[in-house]
From TrEMBL:
This is ABC transporter, ATP-binding protein. Coiled coil: none annotated. InterPro entries: AAA+_ATPase (IPR003593), ABC_transporter-like_ATP-bd (IPR003439), ABC_transporter-like_CS (IPR017871), ABC_transporter_ATP-bind (IPR050166), P-loop_NTPase (IPR027417). It comes from Ruminococcus albus 8. Residues 5-236 form the ABC transporter domain. It comes from the Bacteria. Keywords: ATP-binding, Nucleotide-binding, Transport. GO terms for molecular function: ATP binding; ATP hydrolysis activity. The keyword Cell wall biogenesis/degradation does not apply. CDD domains: ABC_NrtD_SsuB_transporters.
Length: 259
């Protein structure tokens, strides 16, 4: 179950406490196919997370429109799951109850209680159902966050650097687990990352964004066969190509504040 997403001529402008305006996004256009895995990369402050929040319905654009399966996005909806950088687990709930939280909030826990165990197994956390967030590692916590989002059966999963704070070994393990879940569920996935290797390893397409105001500089098709090998010649050649494009995108001048 997956959804197509359309982003058309989207602008997002913020006003700070001093009354200065900052344009985070400018004229962003992007079509995402149902079941596609997309990565957004770009320098810090280029609007990657802003764009993800707009898709989630957590924020609204000043101009343009975002739609899912042809329906305008007007607010949050369980059909779009969101995984934050730090997982944001509820510290007072054990792992099982964290994963079940969305089902309970929607009044579906009684009918779908068996799914909690299924998703615990799916993310490789059998035996940790009664553990609390402070008793597990960062990588395990991110698995819980992903399971908590997926158990609601979203048509799109939005991932805001969920592996950014993990060590390289844990990150590689979680990347593989994420690919397994993507293949199994067919969910449309949109990942924000600063890691070019991660983007190549996971994605069907990579979207390169410019510094503020964030615009789409290039969209790269990742036509490498799966499973991908990080040390392969084609992989390394694509990394070099994307790094060069990324550096070109960063070279574009940033506008000054408007007062």
């Amino acid at each position: 179950m997956s959804s197509s997403i359309n982003i058309s001529q989207v602008d997002r402008i913020y006003t700070d406490t001093d009354g200065r305006t900052v344009q985070a996004l400018k004229n962003v256009d992007l079509d995402i196919k149902a079941g596609e895995f997309i990565s957004l990369i770009g320098p810090s402050g280029c609007g990657k997370t802003t764009l993800l929040r707009l898709i989630a319905g957590l924020d609204k654009p000043q101009a343009g429109q975002l739609s899912i399966d042809g329906r305008k996005i007007t607010g949050v909806d369980p059909e779009r799951g969101y995984v934050f950088q730090q997982g944001s687990l509820f510290p007072w709930l054990d792992i099982g109850h964290n994963i079940a939280y969305g089902l309970r909030a929607r009044g579906q826990l009684k009918q779908k209680k068996a799914k909690v165990g299924e998703y615990i197994s799916m993310v490789g956390l059998d035996g940790f159902e009664k553990s609390y967030p402070h008793q597990i590692s960062g990588g395990m916590a991110q698995r819980v966050a992903i399971a908590r989002a997926l158990i609601n059966e979203p048509k799109a999963l939005l991932l805001d650097e969920p592996m950014g704070a993990l060590d390289s070994f844990t990150r590689a393990d979680l990347q593989d687990k994420l690919l397994e879940l993507w293949k199994e569920n067919g969910t449309t996935m949109i990942l924000v990352t600063h890691d070019i290797d991660e983007a190549i390893y996971l994605s069907d397409r990579i979207v390169i964004m410019t510094p503020r105001p964030g615009k789409i500089s290039r969209v790269i098709e990742v036509d490498l066969p799966r499973p991908r090998h990080r040390g392969g010649i084609e992989f390394l050649a694509m990394r070099k190509e994307i790094l060069e494009l990324f550096e070109l995108a960063q070279a574009q001048p940033q506008p000054e504040y408007n007062i």
